[in-house]
Amino acid sequence: MSLLAAVSTEGQPVAQTGSLLLDRSGWGRLRMKGSPGLDYLHNQSTQNLKALQPGQGADTVFVTPTAGILDLATVYVGEEDCWIWTSPQRRSLLMQSLGRMLPLVRGAQLKDETDQTFGFGLLGPQSQALLEQVVSSEEIPTRLNEHCAVEIQGIPVHLACGTGLAQPGFTLWGTIDQKVALEECLLQAGAKLAPPELWEVLRLEAGRPAADRELTSDYNPLEAGLWRAVSLDKGCYVGQEVLAKQVTYRRIRQTLWGIRLQGEAQPGTEILRQGEKIGLLTSAGLTSQGYLGLGYVRTKFNPAEGLEVEVGSAPGVLTRMPFSSFPPIV
Question: What pTM, to 2 d.p., does this model score?
Answer without folding.
Answer: 0.94
